[in-house]
Amino acid sequence: MNADGAAWEQRSVARVVSPVQPRKLAKVPFVELADGRLQGVVSSGSDIARVYVSSITAGTHAFNCSTNNNRPCGGLYGSPCKHLQALAGEAVLQYGLDQVARYLHVEVGDGADLMSCLNGRHEPTPGAMVFSRFLRHLSYLELPGTTGPIAEMHWFPATGAIR
Amino acid sequence: MLGVQLAELLDGVPPGVGEALDLVTGFDDALVHGFARLSEERATALTSLAGALSATPLGGRVGEAAGKLAAGSVAEEHLTALAGGRAALFGAVHDALLARLDAVLGRVRVSWEEPPATPAPAADNLLSGCRSWLGELAITGWRGVDHDLVSASSQTIEALLPEPGLRRLAVLLDGLAAELRASCPVATVERLPARRWADLWTRALLLSQAGGLPGASESAGVVSGRLLILGVDVHEHGTAVQMQVHGILEPADGTPSRLVRTSVAAAKVDTIVGPALWRLLDGYPALLGALAGHRGLDVTDLPLLGSGDLVWHDDRARVGEPVDPFATARLQLAGALAAAVPPLDRHPVRIAEPVLVEGYRATADGTLDLGGGTLTVDVDRLPACGPLTPKLVASSSACIGLVRWDGGRWLLQPLAVQTTVKRQTVEVHTGDWALGPTDPKVVKAEARAGDAVAVLRERAGRLLRR
Ligand SMILES: [Zn+2]
């Protein structure tokens, strides 16, 4: 065990980023813990061309939700809308409750719901940045495939077959 | 691989390997703390690394670089020279290890021939952007990395990604940046993957030199023949996946069979994981069909690089007769000619030699006892996109795997096993789900989750082009 522990720092292949857990993407295609916020994009249930940009700030738990055209979400009446609820739910699926709670600096008791433990208020924050990060995220799927060998990928083995 | 062969493989470390790795460890420690403020001890470590290379063509430049850094001046050319020195040490370690493995397996390897120079992708501005970010990292040291420094790479990486000729560098930098981002602020992280990050940094700095990336493969010779698949090695990080197929090529011209690899890769996002990965590669139906169906492939005029990599063109391949990979391994693996390793790729991490192992006693803790010695199974390398699990390996009687080396020891990465289920011998391969999962439980779970690739492609189609 000790020999293994000492060797970890001297391994070329070591897991640093845990793979995210699979989840349904239809409603909330994008979630991230970045820029000091839990933020993401929620697809509108009624208009396929519209998305909502929702965010919760770490520490203060200030929240916001607006359309990708920066119009305020109609569901925000001083308390989080259904988009924010969906965002939080999917973030917990993707990263696990512990990681999300740690990032937001919130104590979530056993069996408690993340959103009910937050007591921030609505604070408008520009959503354009998050939306453009989402577009960049999507742009990966538009890149052409390649068939030349990428020797560098030997440092990045696929993992996770534990069923 | 037989017990006696394994005993020979495990019998001590080739001479010089330990000493070379100690020098690398000194360099890696200096990179943890940054080259801006080298302590005397760390400056000595760089001087020692330079000393070990003094008799080589790199000696002068690495020696000068170590001296300048010790004196407190950091210039890009000096970082490059040191990266070259570190890579050369690993090159020597790689060569010693692979020579030992080849000797043990009786594997004959052709020697490297430098291909005619081809124009490398012209991207001076992009490459210098990469070098200056890598320079910042080295000056700061891993311990000083924060969100701002990581984010400084974003624009460069975004610009590299669409260029197929620069994809290797883009994929490497994107992987490194994601690990740094996940570790920010690095100052507070308990233990750092010092070897790994120094590897990635070194590699990136070398690839971002003008002419550091190989040019297009058009100049490579082409081959036709039958490709018999041994198995598939899956590589993945948040934004990239590569399926590297190992196989034996029976050339149509009657020349001896060769061990080859062929790779298909796609960009992705972190939420596409598990069996969904295969859907990103639906542009290669012949290759995926052969993997899923355990079939051979008849290929025509595929470029074959000196590294033994067939450059895949799905439209030049036809799915052929069923061929059992275990039969291929038993009949052909011992006699197939192995390819040379390109100089820049000589790092132990690239050692991935296919072997057939059987007649062992598998234990639940992940080792295979071959009589002559015990081989550790790298169960972490079993990918979630296929059906092969640690449990199946632990109950197996035969295994096709890749021999690897990391952290000072030899490992076996399984690609396929033979095992007994309900008194029937069955085979399980990492590529069995290339056309979709076959396990009803997994099919159901996938159906419940929906098609992640289709959802995101739809969103991209609707939102990106407005
Ligand atoms: Zn809303």
**Strand segment count of chain B:** 13
How many strands appear in the DSSP assignment of chain A? 4
Number of helices of chain A: 4
Could you report the average pLDDT of chain A, rounded to the nearest whole number?
90
Number of domains of chain B: 3
What does this structure look like?
The complex is a heterodimer of chains A (163) and B (466). Chain A is of the alpha+beta class and 163 residues long. Chain A has one domain (20-138). Helix content of chain A is 25%, strand content 15%. Chain A has four helices and four strands. A four-stranded antiparallel β-sheet of chain A has the order 1-2-3-4, sandwiched between helices. In chain A, α2 (82-95) packs across α3. The model of chain A has no long low-confidence stretch (mean pLDDT 90). In chain B, the strands form two sheets. In chain B, strands 7, 8, 9, 10, 11, 12 and 13 form a seven-stranded mixed β-sheet that branches. A six-stranded mixed β-sheet of chain B has the order 5-3-2-1-4-6, with helices on both faces. Chain B is 39% helix and 22% strand. Chain B has three domains: 8-207, no CATH class; 217-335, Beta Barrel (OB fold (Dihydrolipoamide Acetyltransferase, E2P)); 344-429, no CATH class. Chain B is of the alpha+beta class and 466 residues long. In chain B, α8 (154-160) packs antiparallel against α9 (167-182). The complex binds zinc ion. Zinc ion (ZN) binds next to β3 of chain A.
